[in-house]
Q: What sequence folds into this?
């Protein structure tokens, strides 16, 4: 049972502290497990701080998303392979991500939130951010994908030619 | 970067939402992306094609795909580089009367090995098999291109079953008489 008024203090990787409601942290498998592992009395207030390997700026974004999605049903529904799609991101989430696009480091912000959602085990946020990145990659050229993923090519020209030959399947 | 910060499962979750064309591109980004794109192909988005037509005439098996309002035929005569060549929909693709195919033939293992990886990129609405002799290799091929897919209709026109069909396949497909 979750007590919505109970608050949890989270300490970030860069030393900040943020106190949030259990109503939000219940969506994080990592934080809920940490609280369970503390074996505290349900009425204990405040709880001991939970350390999270996420920086303060990213955690603020995570909390903003959790606040909007605090009433989402749990557990988060598992998706079958057929249900994996990327064109069903809710309007609020789209606006949330669009907001980062005004920043110079939009890519870094998206990666940071994906990483945070993965570490904190927030399935809904991870699902949404993975969809967002999939949409950014979709239909792009190799060079554009390298730029988005920030990766260097580690193939030789001969290897690349061989892979392209194997992948060729349609004559236009 | 994303690659160094995240476990493979996280990246696979992203790549499972791409299609085979995207994975082709991704496979040339880096060695790790090639490995992950190969894994993602079993879960990625499929091309939604209207129809697969597998027919046999004059001892040659023809594989044709109706995709995006265009017909493609699979060129099995080019063994080293296997490609689909766009063709116009015309009389050559119309199913002929069964009497023109007095003898069915099985699909060769060589052809099956050539087309199977390619056809697994698609989800077909309709599959039509014409003048094909269904042997164990055919049913293995059939299972491969239909598994985890939603095929609305499968047609068998002037097809028959190979007399050496295994008991396993006879039972699986409820073939009672040969």
A:
């Amino acid at each position: 049972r979750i007590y919505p008024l109970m608050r949890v203090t989270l300490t970030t990787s860069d030393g900040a502290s943020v106190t949030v409601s259990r109503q939000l942290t219940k969506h994080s498998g990592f934080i809920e497990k940490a609280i369970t592992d503390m074996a505290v009395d349900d009425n204990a207030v405040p709880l001991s701080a939970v350390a999270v390997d996420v920086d303060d700026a990213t955690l603020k974004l995570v909390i903003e998303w959790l606040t909007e999605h605090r009433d989402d049903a749990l557990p988060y529904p598992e998706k079958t392979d057929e249900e994996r799609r990327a064109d069903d991101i809710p309007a609020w989430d789209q606006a949330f991500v669009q907001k980062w696009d005004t920043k110079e480091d939009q890519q870094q912000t998206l990666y940071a939130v994906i990483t945070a959602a993965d570490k904190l085990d927030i399935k809904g946020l991870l699902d949404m951010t993975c969809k967002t990145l999939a949409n950014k990659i979709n239909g792009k050229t190799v060079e554009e994908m390298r730029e988005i993923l920030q990766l260097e090519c580690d193939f030789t020209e001969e290897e690349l030619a061989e892979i392209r030959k194997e992948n060729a399947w349609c004559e236009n | 970067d994303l690659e160094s910060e995240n476990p493979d499962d996280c990246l696979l979750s992203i790549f499972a939402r791409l299609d085979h064309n995207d994975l082709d591109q991704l496979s040339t980004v880096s060695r790790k992306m090639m490995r992950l794109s190969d894994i993602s192909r079993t879960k990625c988005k499929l091309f939604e094609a209207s129809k697969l037509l597998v027919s046999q005439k004059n001892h040659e098996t023809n594989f044709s795909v109706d995709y995006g309002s265009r017909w493609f035929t699979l060129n099995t005569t080019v063994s080293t580089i296997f490609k689909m060549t766009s063709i116009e929909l015309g009389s050559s693709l119309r199913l002929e009367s069964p009497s023109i195919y007095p003898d069915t033939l099985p699909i060769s293992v060589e052809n099956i090995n050539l087309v199977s990886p390619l056809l697994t990129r698609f989800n077909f609405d309709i599959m039509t098999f014409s003048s094909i002799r269904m042997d164990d290799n055919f049913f293995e091929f059939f299972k491969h291109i239909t598994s985890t897919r939603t095929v609305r209709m499968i047609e068998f026109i002037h097809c028959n079953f190979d007399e050496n069909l295994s008991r396993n396949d006879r039972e699986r497909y409820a073939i009672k008489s040969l």
Observations:
- The radius of gyration of chain B is 19 Å.
- Residues 47-172 of chain B form one domain.
